[in-house]
Design a protein that fits this description.
single chain, about 375 residues, alpha/beta, Spore Coat Polysaccharide Biosynthesis Protein SpsA, Chain A, 12 helices
């Protein structure tokens, strides 16, 4: 009975997080939407770009931000250099010498969030916007991003990251398009459960100094909801980034990312002081998704143990073996899904064994 319970429980949880929940969230968002009251607002904005050894892309990033379709006198651009040891600081200072809107803040080496926390008090904008050094924003991205702040309930706004075609075998783009559909449904229901580091903004009064090992992407949305605020998605505020080249590079990136996710899930008080709907979203979209690797291990083990006790268990085992064979045979979505799912298991093991460092490494092939 225990093995059968584990089989059906793991199968049901995987089906729910990957298919059932997205469908349920989409239907619920259409039946009971909570629209954002957007307006033509133009607050003063501080755009903060966290950078560590970004000499290859930092000039391009600054030129892109200087060309935004937003009143220049209302924008300051601050590069938070996390003790860069290459020419990043020199290049930023060269741009700053001819463009007073650009400023360099050199931070002690402590990681991305530590650099952001260090830099925020040294800025003046009513809204704080954040971006990665390797991102590019559409000309109207900032204007579209801040218009949701016309709604007094909104504390955090995340734009839409569009991934460019990878140079190699990575299939992150297919997953990301699926993720954006779920994010749009969550936003329509009330608040999203996760953001992205390429384009997001928060009111200065709502900014939180979180543990430097946490990322804003996952910690900010639920923290805003816990304070009675909203964290929403604005698909018309578009940023572009180059993904990792190959699926193996993406696997290593995901392992590092999931280590931080497990830290937040297990130590970040993620499930307290949430309304029932948002709690269900966090459990369905975050906890079960991060636990999908463990669920697959349980499903495979119980399928193998029960294969002789019924056709359904034998069929489940055969289906899993066939999928793994496709993943091993050639690059594609089966291999991408298999590696990214296993990354959740390796990340949990790394976290339990070594903890999580605050500093970050650049993903291969994303510059």
């Amino acid at each position: 009975m225990l093995l059968k319970g584990l089989f059906w429980g793991s199968l049901g949880a995987l089906a729910w997080t990957h298919v059932g929940y997205p469908v349920a969230a989409t239907v619920a968002s259409r039946l009971r939407p909570r629209p954002v009251r957007k307006g033509d607002v133009q607050p003063r904005v501080s755009v903060i770009v966290a950078a560590w050894n970004e000499e290859d892309v930092i000039e391009r990033r600054l030129e892109n931000l200087l060309e935004l379709d937003y009143p220049p006198e209302l924008v300051e651009i601050v590069v938070a250099s996390d003790a860069s040891s290459d020419r990043t600081d020199e290049l930023v200072q060269a741009v700053s010498a001819r463009e007073p809107r650009v400023r360099l803040v050199r931070c002690p080496r402590g990681g991305k969030v530590a650099a952001q926390n260090f830099t925020v008090p040294q800025t003046s904008g009513d809204v704080l916007a954040f971006s990665d050094a390797n991102a590019t924003w559409a000309p109207d991205a900032l204007a579209k991003l801040v218009r949701s702040f016309a709604d007094s309930d909104v504390a955090y706004v995340c734009g839409e990251l569009q991934l460019q075609q990878p140079d190699g075998t990575n299939r992150e783009g297919a997953y990301w398009r699926y993720e954006l559909l779920v994010r749009a449904a969550e936003s329509a229901l009330g608040s999203i459960t996760g953001g992205n580091g390429s384009i997001y903004a928060v009111r200065r009064n709502d900014y939180l100094e979180v543990d430097p090992r946490f990322g804003h992407d996952l910690s900010f949305p639920y923290r805003m909801v816990q304070r009675g605020r909203r964290a929403v998605f604005e698909p018309e505020a578009v940023a572009y980034e180059k993904p990792s080249r190959d699926v193996e590079d993406e696997y290593r990136r995901k392992v590092r990312m999931f280590e931080h996710c497990w830290l937040i899930v297990l130590r970040g008080q993620m499930f307290g002081d949430l309304d029932p709907v948002y709690l269900a979203e966090v459990l369905s979209h975050r906890l079960l998704r991060y636990g999908s690797g463990l669920l697959h291990v349980a499903l495979f083990a119980t399928s193998a143990a029960l294969a002789r006790e019924g056709r359904i268990y034998a069929a489940a085992l055969a289906a899993q073996l066939a999928f793994l064979s496709m993943a091993a045979a050639r690059p594609g979505l089966p291999r991408y899904y298999t590696l990214v799912t296993w990354a959740t298991v390796e990340a949990l093991a790394n976290y339990l064994r070594n903890g999580v460092p605050a500093v970050w490494e650049k993903a291969e092939g994303t510059r």
